[in-house]
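Hi R.,

As promised, here are both runs. First protein below:
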Amino acid sequence: MTLTQTPLSDDAAWAAVQARDRAYDGRFVTGVLTTGIYCRPSCPARHPARGHVRFYADGAAARAADLRACLRCRPDDLARDEAAILTAIALIRAEPDPPALADLATATGYSAAHLQRLFVRHTGLSPAAYARALRAERAAHSLTAAASVTEAIYDAGFSGPSRFYAGTAGRLGMTPSAWVDGGRGVTIRWAVVPTSLGAMLVAATERGVCRLSFAEDHTALAARFPHATLEQGGDAFADLLAQVIAAVEAPGTGDHIPLDVRGTAFQEAVWRALRTIPPGETRSYAMIAAATGHHRAVRAAGSANGANPVAVLIPCHRVIRSDGALGGYAYGIAIKRELLTRESLPE
């Protein structure tokens, strides 16, 4: 039984159904021959026997097979939901000031509360948080090219400096002037330590770990932050370093460790999705893309996965190819395989 008009295998589709994985909603529907209905992969109803199930690319294909939509999960509403999210995103991106949730709800034909829930489910962010992330992304881009911080602030759509500092506090990590000037004014402490996975570079600002990599030394930091003050070790750094080493030796135990990472809004959405993968589980690149609300952006999700600045703590090693192969890893397949083995995962 082949999966109709979709690149997923039957086994992958069935696994998504068993997990009730919302990331696959919209990629296919599940037809149950004994009841004559079709559902979303995430339908909360009791699972049918595997032999009674067929997979279809969409509701139209299922209806052509004389099945009817489930009244519990309403799979045909998904297209409308996605259209509403895309409309809301377009409105947010088009306006210099974030539209009010009530205005977005009116434009999409949903209640404000329902739109909020849908938006969070599809993007991982509320509409307001998405707007803030978008403006911060634009600010970061502008800061790399603008002649002055003030110019970048207005280019990014902020009404003035005070709004910019309020909107980016806690996200950029460094002050805007440091962001534009290679970390000027920021102290980054670092160490290269031996681990069972090889030599590991750990670096942190006062906010948290900003770099964790293998087979690198502090010259990599100098390239990333050419004007930062780089200091090796130190008592203030020792405790954090010990926590990081422990988390690498036993992956899945470092969720409490503070991070100071920055990326585009999409990259950060991918990194948040990676941190939701439980130890002992994996996700495909397609699933990560879907978790960000951009299920077609599989290649971009792979690039964001590869741009992860803190290996292991943001567990990009838990992402594998849709066919079950390990796929790539910035520090080599051997390290990825070992990390998965330590989490008791089959290859």
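And here is the second one, sequence first, then its structure tokens:
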Amino acid sequence: MLRVNDVVLYTAEAYGNSETVGVVDGYTVFVPHLIVGEVARVRVNYVKKNVAYAAPIEILHPSESRISPPCPNFGKCGGCALAHLEYGEQLVFKRNKVSNNICKLAKLNADVLPCVPSPLRLGYRNKLSLPVRGRRGAVKLGLFERNSHKIVTADHCVLAGDWADTLISLFTEYCNRCGVEPYDERTFRGGVRHLVARYIDGQLLATIVSNGEFKEDLRPFARKLAEHFDRFGLFVNINTAHNNVIMGKTTRHICGIEYIEGEHLGVRYRLRPNSFFQVNDGVKNLIYGKVRDLLDLSDTEVLVDCFSGIGILTNVLASCRYDTYAIEIEPSAVTDAEETAQLNGTPRLVNICGDVTAELPKIIAANAGKRFTVVVDPPRKGLNDVICDALLDAAPDTIVYVSCDSATLARDLARLAVDYDVTYVEPYDMFPQTDQVETIARLTIRRN
């Protein structure tokens, strides 16, 4: 029988969702930071029935795929769960994760293609959200430990570029020099909760998330930003909620540029502090290009893009040959999507602010009898029964599903498989060094 604090010999036999899996004395044991085939001494830290979780103490037989992690905070910070893996093995891990979920959860025999690599393995993130903790005069910026809210101080993040190091240094110095009080989650007191920043094509948007009105003078910080960034915008976001949501609903522009301007896949866009935008530009473009390639829109009369964000993919897919509807629940994103459509002169496009659960059935009913094509890119929780039923009622020839969680993807594919065949599944490494993976699945209707 395994008990907490037991030290046992463990062989990593397979990959799970975020760790390795093996068997010890009849228990299924999950251990992070190992590679399939490695033998290690591990300490058990949790036991329930026939399942246990453990942490490695000593690797007795290391894998040839093991590398030295590029970050000194590996194993502490919750970001880079796979930084000990040679990159090719990271891609194997992610393909297996998607394949296992679809096979075990959806009970489907879909062929999962190899994971598409990221053009950049380090320095790929265009956005960081950094909690601000510590005490007045000793402010800490960093990231949370995995499955906790203990902060790991970081003056350098290997997943972002040099721009992030500069910004972290400048803001930490500003907070300590001006006596800014960081947020305390236990008491809900303190001035600054997070620093949120996005950097694309030499343009920086820096947002201070404040627990109420920000009372400090921001001019010294703005001057420092101007010394290091040619184009920057400084904002304050107000968030007094007692929860883990990073940003509140009110954002004030302080100085500098008001948005980032760019063009991806021929679509012009503008990003503001609250805009949703994929963090890895190179992989985002690969995914959006693949979605376009997977769709045969020659006979389509109605295209619906669900969970459409600021509308870049919508505008990539829209055409004067059919009506396009984009559904997004966040009002600020819909405002951005309207601007995106105006910037690009996109024809026959209607942006709808609302819940996909309510709006998709309305669109289907209003266009009864027409040939549909549907794209869904939901948040981590995936679709729900109402959306799946609406899709089955509309019976579009093709559904393309872009997923950030292969477990909820598998659940939804199982729901839709009553009328659809899963004809394409391909993972994409949107988040190198982490255990997260993006996946594209195409569903083709089964005609009797």
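A quick note on the second one: The domain at 127-264 is CATH 2.40.50.1070 (OB fold (Dihydrolipoamide Acetyltransferase, E2P)). Let me know what you think.

Best,
J.
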